[in-house]
Design a protein that fits this description.
This protein has no helices and 20 strands. The protein is mostly beta strands. It has one domain: Glycosyl hydrolase domain, family 43 (Tachylectin-2, Chain A, 5 Propeller), CATH 2.115.10.
């Protein structure tokens, strides 16, 4: 996993009205357009650190992450009548036969503890119909063994079962999730969960052992999988410096990663720091369409910023166009 030093200092692209942080995207190769989905909330909530409790998903488009058309700040928000009756957190979007699926994170306040996270799915026929995402009520992916099942108030961070990332391997659908292991010490439970779709259906999942469980972090957020060579893979994730207890990272936090020749096993070897927290970006994404450049949200101001740091990482198989889902 190589990184190239940044050649430019890029500006942060801010929303005219909203505080923006985590994002995910679908790239349309025919038009060269990145379709962005981003968490956002009222800027007045940031000072009290309450924006996470009011976040919703917005939609935007860009060609280069230097100018962004902020189309709508709300395409998916909390459903007061559903299990996802709290704020919406990070997700993933994929193209399927007949439309697009958005996997997202939420919690339940009415009947649950309000802190334990689950993953839901929404569907749209057309990306441009940004105001017509329909929830699929039959899909609610809840944590199961071997992962921590619910929030532990004694831990350093709240429950983790979020930030889905989907990929294919040998005609099989898999999903990564930021999760926690129940048998690890408090503050070092962070792991990356691995799930396999049963019968390649998006509705039922088999819970596999973690793809990575180093015991170094309170959380391993926004996990993503990439190719770093013909036979090598890179697993990247974000961690705040205050929750980074890896013995070789000097508590740098930020975007880190492991490399392996085995797609489903990333041993707890020395993690690589791709972009430390001091760079001012978090919840970073690797953008293979930009030579694997690291792009994240600006920790200080909110908004999205290119880092100028190129990793050369490439996509794993993310082609789901032959799969469909019944509505």
């Amino acid at each position: 996993m190589r990184t190239l030093a940044p050649e430019f200092s890029y500006p942060t692209v801010q929303h005219p009205d909203r505080h923006v942080w985590d994002f995910w995207y679908y790239f349309d190769p025919e038009t060269g357009t990145f379709h962005l989905f981003y968490l956002n909330a009222d800027r007045s909530l940031v000072a009290q650190d309450q924006h996470h409790l009011s976040s919703q998903v917005g939609y935007a488009t860009t060609k280069d992450f230097l100018t962004i058309d902020w189309v709508s700040d709300r395409v998916l928000g909390a459903d007061p009548h559903g299990w996802d009756d709290t704020s919406i957190w990070s997700g993933d979007v994929i193209k399927v036969d007949g439309g697009f699926l958005m996997f997202y994170t939420s919690r339940n306040q009415a009947t649950d503890d309000g802190m334990t996270q689950n993953v839901g799915v929404a569907f749209t026929h057309h990306m441009q119909s940004f105001d017509r995402w329909f929830r699929i009520p039959s899909i609610r992916i809840q944590p199961e063994a071997p992962y921590e099942l619910q929030h532990n108030p004694e831990d350093l961070t709240i429950h983790a079962w979020r930030d889905p990332f989907l990929f294919r391997h040998e005609e099989q659908i898999y999903m990564l999730l930021s999760a926690k292991e129940p048998d690890r010490p408090l503050g070092k439970k962070g792991t990356v969960a691995l799930l396999k779709a049963k019968n390649n259906s998006f509705e039922q999942w088999e819970y596999l052992p973690p793809i990575c469980h180093p015991g170094f972090y309170a959380e391993m957020e926004v996990p993503q999988l990439y190719r770093s060579g013909a036979d090598d893979y890179a697993l990247v994730y974000s961690t705040w410096a205050k929750y980074d207890f890896a013995p070789t990272t000097e508590q740098s936090g930020g975007l880190q990663g492991f490399r392996s020749s085995s797609l489903f096993n990333f041993p707890a070897a020395t993690p690589e720091v791709l972009l430390p927290e001091t760079a001012g970006l978090y919840a970073c994404r690797i953008i293979p369409e930009l030579n694997g450049e690291i792009v994240g949200f600006d920790i200080t101001t909110g908004g999205i910023r290119r880092s100028g740091v190129q990793t050369g990482l490439q996509h794993v198989d993310r082609d789901f166009s032959s799969y469909s889902i019944e509505m």
